[in-house]
Amino acid sequence: MPIFYYNIKKLKVVIHVIKRYFVRTRSLETGMKIDQSIKDRMDRVLIARGTILDEYLIQSLLKLRIGGVYICEGEEDEPVPVEEEKPMSPMARNNIAKLRTADPAKVTLSESVKKRVSEGIQYLYNHSEAEDFSNATNSITKDLMKAIHDNDAIAVDITALKASDEYTFKHSVDVATMSMIIAQKQKLKQEDIYNIGIAGLLHDMGKSKIPPEILNKPAKLNDEEFAIMKQHSTLGYQILKEKNEFPDAISFAVLQHHEKMNGKGYPMGVTADKITPFAKILSVADVYDALVTERPYKKSFSQRTAVEMIMSMTEELDITAMKSFLGSVILYPVDSTVQLSNGEEARVVKNYPEAVLRPVVVGLTSGKIYDLKDDFDCANIIIQ
User: For the domain bounded by 111-330, which CATH number is listed?
Assistant: First the structure.
């Protein structure tokens, strides 16, 4: 809508026209001014209204799978309003300041690292016969290892993963990152953490040998197709064994990442005592990431629901790996705003590693402290 300003003294009409229109993300250009704010699932502002877009921000919008945004042209006499934080009572502000406990350091991948890792993993899956396969794998794993060490990371923000929009590559990087953090939580040797990162990156390598019409089918596989798909773990194992450059711990983790503790997995159908430690860790990360990822034939589950489902799979997943996973992930980062089942919005001020679904929050209106883990009076309150 045009905005009109009238200069009465000079009997002259001065018109400032501010044009607002919708642009698909793939058509955005650097220098455009965004006329809306972009927020994440926790209601945190990622890009403020009035921001001038550069190539980095445009690529970020693409990665967030945002189809398009509003752009404005023209000058305003008034400055663009700054995003305001959620209104809160004085008591809430005081309690938040008093109780706020920062989350443990989280693994963070810079955009440049994400780009290198994404391109690298795509190269591996498309060139499994390449002579430099091992070197390329080590290069990617070193990037992930460095990201963990640079941040002294002992946790992973599971709402902030996804190095690539393409499922197989994104999934491989997510599983590798989570598995390395789980391994670190279990205080494994640095060599083992590194090797489990390689296993995570390559755990679905066998899918490069699955017929494309099955691998990319936009519907649920039938029994015959699923039987072929299940061969990917064996095919991945064979690819690595033929190269004779990877330790057995990595090859067997790739082979067994779909095995279950109760013997109902594949390809071998073995029980817990026959499954390698790396495979037990990979399995937890693999199941979680598959649950939260939308596919053409299924909707994604929310992070909360996926965590609850992981917690219920005690017969299928290794308990130690599961506990390490739950102790490493951050579902509701400190400073995020959440909706409680009693109707109040609240700010997260403290997380419990052993109770990822039950942080300490402060009601923004009432200022009330809700210790969802230890306060019996909060037993019937959940984060929605």
Answer: 1.10.3210.10
